Model the fold of this input.
Amino acid sequence: MEKPVLYIVVPCYNEQEVLPITSGMFLEKIRALADAGKISEESRVLFVNDGSKDDTWKIIEGLAAQDAHFLGISLSRNRGHQNALLGGLMAAKDRCDVTISIDCDGQDDINAMDRMIDAYLDGCEVVYGVRARRDTDTFFKRFTAEGFYHLMNRLGADIVFNHADYRLMSSRALAALAEFGEVNLFLRGLVPLVGFKSTSVYYDRAERIAGESHYPLKKMLALAFDGITSLSVKPIRLITTLGVVVSVLSFIGVLWALIAALAGHTVAGWASTVCMVCFMGGVQLLCLGVIGEYIGKIYLEAKHRPRYLFSDRTWKDE
Ligand code: UDP
Ligand code: MG
Done:
């Protein structure tokens, strides 16, 4: 069998501090894997510049000029981690046999790649990198992140616990992923839907080597919300349940009011009216909000805008 061509796909956004350090680590890994005879010498590291505002793209161009193992591609503007990653994977898919996606900040242990490639050579088409421990994350990040995975699973989205976007995908699995045309992109939820034979490898997550996280709480919440609403309709079902419960309660309330009135008690009526109005107003607004969220998603899907556009790359068309 011919040795597989591996592309390591690395989305980068404002990473000028960390890129010079981690790029060398990726290159070494490719060399070591090629020397071990597991992958082809034609393997590459593909950096995807996600519209960085600092010198990231210059650094990538410099790397590509220095060593043929480095390739770079640039999005026309910042589109976010998920879109940048998809763009990179799609650019890589027809040029290689297998891809590994990884963040460029050195948090994910690159030595897990050896086991990923072994699993691939054993016939797996998708290999999930799973964080065995999160010791280096702050308590807050760990708590919110793990809570998120639990919530997602309870809401019916089939995602791999503690797996982010460090994963191996074969070009066959990527071709299948390309069939999913959704604009509201949440790769962690999509890849399990793509199927194929898969497995997980475990690794310890380290601290960022340099630079700062681009995922403050606000963005994490947005990602979690996007993930839930693009993978699950359970929130809408919950609303229906809530509606039923509120209706039953209201019915009891009406009976109570009627009986009280017929029994001739003079009901002041103010408190109960206000309570009802407030309660119903609150419930209705909440429900409208959730439904609106889904309509917003439909709106974005209906427009079918491109998920990423490339403006530059470091190689010429063959
Ligand atoms: N990233 C990106 N576009 C963005 C934000 C982040 O391509 O708009 C990249 C970033 O360069 C990094 C990866 O996504 O390689 C993960 O980001 P980060 O390390 O900041 O997130 P965290 O690990 O803290 O969740
Ligand atoms: Mg990180």
Q: What stands out?
A: The beta strands are 6-12, 44-49, 70-75, 98-101, 126-133, 163-170, 198-204, 310-313.
